[in-house]
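This protein record is not my work; I was only asked to verify it. Take the sequence as given and treat only the tokens as open to question. I have pasted the whole thing underneath without changing anything:
***
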Amino acid sequence: MLSYDSAIPNGQDKAARVPLPPAGARSMSSSASVAAPVNGQAQGQRQHHLWLVTGPAGCGKTTVAEYLANALDIPYIEGDLYHPPANIDKMSAGIPLTDSDRWDWLTELRKQSNSRINNGADGVVVACSALKLKYRDVIRVAAYYDRTILVHFIFLHASQELLLQRVAQRKGHYMGANMVKSQFDILERPREDEIDVITIDASQGADEVKDDALAKVNAVLAADP
């Protein structure tokens, strides 16, 4: 089994005033050219990869994100650590977060990611749920603040029943099993035109999920010129 991360849904970023391109051109995929115009990059420019490990509570985001960060030797950001106390209080009480609750939180995750890359990291791995398209779009704005950044999402999916079982087994965590349903209620699975999303079956064993994720990440990196 995967260890159970706290997959909290993210929020729309009110600071994201930069206009996004159409959905089909908005992002990078493992098969797309690493110098695609979505990020305005010239051929040969050094690139930095921002990996977002996403999905509902219990899918194993922390487990996979930490594994990828160690394997790639790049910084890891645990999204839950950046929630303000008010958000944690709401979740501890079983109250789902609203978009406005997540707004500044997701902005901070984006800023933290850009900061680490600006300070010399080759890339960053972030664990956060990113359950809605507009939440993912907020993170995609990172590439507009730094044209060397390529944003990728690793979506871990499993059935609601399985994730409920996993979260119910957690001890002493503010994210209870009752929150899993609320996350599935708002979940917007990645669309076909979100070509920067890698999908992983999180119902597998922990080792299989980690190996699958790393293999697909390495395939993306292998395309880097």
Remarks:
- Residues 35 and 190 are 23 Å apart (CA to CA).
- The longest helix spans residues 99-118.
- Residues 1-42 have pLDDT under 50 and may be disordered.
